[in-house]
Amino acid sequence: MILGVGIDVVDIERFGESLERTPGLVGRIFTPAEASRPLASLAARFAAKEALAKALGAPSGMHWHDAEVVSESSGRPLFEVRGSVAARAAELGVSSVHLSLSHDAGIASAVVVLESA
Q: Which residues are annotated as a binding site for Mg(2+)?
C-alpha cells in the first residue's frame, strides 16, 4: 500500500548561488559523502530530501543528515535513513522507500514513494 508520495524540483543554478552565498550550508544539508558530488547531483539530492519530507508529512524536527542519498553499484539511488527520519518512517509503517532522481536542462528533480508491506 502507498503511504506517501513526494516530489520536488530545484533550479540548479539558483541552488548553486545559494550554496555560494551561505557558507556552511553544504555541511548542514549533506553528509560528507554527498557533499563531494557535483552541483547537479547536490541539487538532485536536495530535491530528494525535500520530496522525502513531503512524503513523510513534513514533520518538524527532522534532520537533514538523517536521510542520506547513496547509490548502488548499478547507479540506482536509494535512501539510507536513521534517527529522526527512521523514527517517522517507522511511525507510519514504511517498509520501502522508492526514489527517482533526474537533472536536465538546468533543473533537478526527485520523486519519493513510501510503501508499506
A: 8, 50
